[in-house]
Amino acid sequence: MKRSHLISLAVGAVMCAASAFAQAPPIQPVMMKQLKPDVWAGLGGSGGNSTIYIGKTGVIVVDAKQTEAGAKDLLAEIAKITPKPVTTVFLTHSDGDHVNGLVAYPANVKVIAHENNKKEQQAAIAAGGRGAPPPDRLPQQVVTKQKETMTIDGVKLELYHWGPAHTSGDLIIYSPQNKIVSTGDIVVTNRADDNPNIHMDKNGSVEGWMANVKGMIGLNADSYITGHGDILAKADLQRKLTAVTERRNKIAAMVKEGKSLEEIKAALPDTPAPGARAAAPPAAAAAAPAAARGPVPGFVDAVYAELTKKKTT
Q1: Which residue ranges of the chain lie beneath pLDDT 50?
Q2: Yes or no: is domain 27-234 CATH 3.90.180.10?
Q3: For the whole model, what pTM was predicted?
Q4: Measured between alpha carbons, how far is 289 from 205 in angstroms, rounded to an integer?
Q5: What count of other Cβ atoms lies within 10 Å of the Cβ of residue 311?
Q6: pLDDT in tens, 1-57
Q7: Alpha-carbon distance 226 to 126, whole Å?
């Protein structure tokens, strides 16, 4: 009886372990793509895309990935390319899937971001935001102007902020020598062209989104490393700008006619990317009642809020 009982316990333990393993989300490795002799893109993996510049003595990374494991995956891939250490990280915005991987970077890494990005991270930490990077990984250097130029370890970069777009602290990183732009989540390919992601809770702006995309189109660039998805060309950005402008104008016409937000949403609903599947919500969010979570504001909400605010101010 004792032997039978032990066997039952062992089988149960194996089945529980197998069940837990089956439920664990698969870890997707980052895909490295070389764009120029010393420039790489780290696509996918944990969180948003990253850009890698190899300088004279060190490495510059744009966007740090979402998790410690995902960032270590990226750092391991960089180590296969060069023995030089990562010395600088630029952040395109404050979303966790581009920031939280900082926990895996060297303790002395220099973090550079827009000043509003730092404020958003500080607010998240103060609110006890889950998964926020530790306070010692906040940006040590902030960008405050519409355009700033830096040369780091022999790599010349131009930094642009044409106002709030995806968030209030968006930063575009441009390499004029390589004709490469890191767009952050201002431009992504996992959403429909006419449905950019505007974080109203971080003071993002549709009009600012349009201004930023116009600015990026105006740069002498061949490759645009998006926040999520494929690398795009200038014509792709123009297509997205045209689609967003047309849809915004339709919403504006309905606002002028006195239509309500609900009427406009019914007539011009946000369209997902073709073939896209909705991501599973985190366990905590899934456990919360739907009424408590509420719908996530979309593009129509953002346009409507901007237009009606203008009418009342």
Answers
A1: 1-24, 276-293
A2: no
A3: 0.85
A4: 29
A5: 8
A6: 444 444 444 444 434 443 433 344 556 899 999 999 999 999 999 999 999 999 999
A7: 30
Among the listed residues 174, 167, 132, 116, the one whose alpha carbon sits nearest the alpha carbon of residue 150: 174
CA–CA separation, 306 vs 268, rounded Å?
Answer: 17
DSSP symbol at 85:
P
Cα–Cα nearest to 114, from 88, 97, 138: 138
CA distance 169 to 148: 15
Label residue 52 left, alpha or beta by phi (over 0 means left) and psi (-120 to 50 means alpha): beta
Q: Looking at this protein, which amino acid is placed at residue 40? A: W
> In DSSP terms, which residues pair with 147 in a beta bridge?
160
CB within 8 Å of 217: residues ≥ 6 apart: 234, 237, 238, 241
Cβ proximity of 206 and 303 under 8 Å: yes
